[in-house]
Write a structure and sequence with these properties.
By secondary structure, this protein is mainly alpha-helical. It has 15 helices and no strands. Helix 3 (30-42) runs antiparallel to helix 5. The chain starts with a helix and ends with a helix.
Length: 286
């Protein structure tokens, strides 16, 4: 669930409170990266797209397409598109008494609608044949939730703002697959019990809903966020992130295990490395 009106107003106040100096306005600045963090955790992009694209498969495809391009427009740095083709007037430009949330929603709408015909090619399967299998209270097709085709969505918006000490150590692909299978059978309430007493556990989870914990641990990294994940990682751990992040996609990729082990050895095998990269991936995934 995304932000309500009061939460959007509060986010706008936080954005307006930033001292937008020339350095803060510079493309790729820490302040712009903070806006990316707020935008992704708010799920405004996803909410805006799902209002327009009622077919779940089409909505997920447009989210995959639109989200990295929204990040580009906030940061002013390229991820998936050619900056030579950008319209400079479309890059975020903070203004006094300006609504960041309004800008995100309008820009999301424009990108997704202008590109829908090209992006939603025939390979995006029409799901209308499933409509007879029932809908839930949110007007979503229950068959997709049961089939596990939707990413887990946190119950509470702004998790990392509400819990500044929150870190996430993500399970490796085989463990994540097994956990998702159990969640599909038993529900998200099983997750805290599954990780209790393991390295995946975090005392901060005691203050979260089970659905929040499940989303942090198991939501796949969006395909278009691989480059952004490396960019948002502290330099010390950036190579580790580049080597490891492909294992966190919905369809995990094989990685160079020897190179990954060498990089981890160079970091002293510190668990903080895994917490750092895991937290960045969780921020981009939920």
């Amino acid at each position: 669930m995304g932000l309500n009106r009061a939460q959007r107003d509060e986010l706008d106040r936080r954005v307006q409170a930033i001292d937008w100096t020339d350095e803060a306005r510079a493309f790729g600045s820490p302040q712009r990266l903070q806006l990316v963090d707020w935008m992704l955790s708010s799920r405004m992009v996803e909410d805006e797209i799902r209002k327009s694209f009622r077919n779940p498969a089409q909505a997920e495809r447009m989210i995959e397409y639109t989200r990295p391009r929204m990040v580009e427009k906030v940061t002013g740095t390229p991820i998936v598109s050619n900056p030579a083709q950008w319209n400079p007037g479309n890059i975020l430009d903070p203004q006094p008494d300006w609504s960041f949330c309004g800008w995100v929603r309008r820009t999301t709408y424009t990108i997704s609608h202008r590109n829908a015909r090209r992006v939603l090619h025939p390979q995006v399967r029409d799901t209308t044949s499933y409509e007879t299998m029932g809908e839930d209270g949110d007007d979503r097709l229950t068959v997709f939730d049961l089939a596990g085709t939707r990413p887990l969505v946190p119950v509470t918006p702004g998790l990392f703002d509400a819990h500044p000490r929150l870190w996430v150590l993500r399970p490796d692909p085989p463990q994540a697959q097994a956990m998702r299978a159990r969640v599909a059978r038993l529900g998200v309430d099983i997750v805290p019990a599954m990780i209790a007493g393991t390295v995946l556990d975090n005392p901060e989870y005691r203050h979260l809903e089970p659905g929040d914990v499940a989303a942090l641990l198991l939501s796949p990294l969006p395909q278009g966020s691989l480059a952004l994940a490396a960019r948002m990682t502290p330099p010390r751990y950036r190579r580790l992130m580049s080597l490891w992040a492909p294992t966190q996609l919905a369809s995990p990729r094989r990685v160079d295990g020897a190179a990954l082990r060498r990089e981890l050895d160079s970091l002293g095998g510190d668990i903080r490395a895994w917490r750092t990269v895991g937290t960045v991936v969780a921020r981009l995934s939920v």
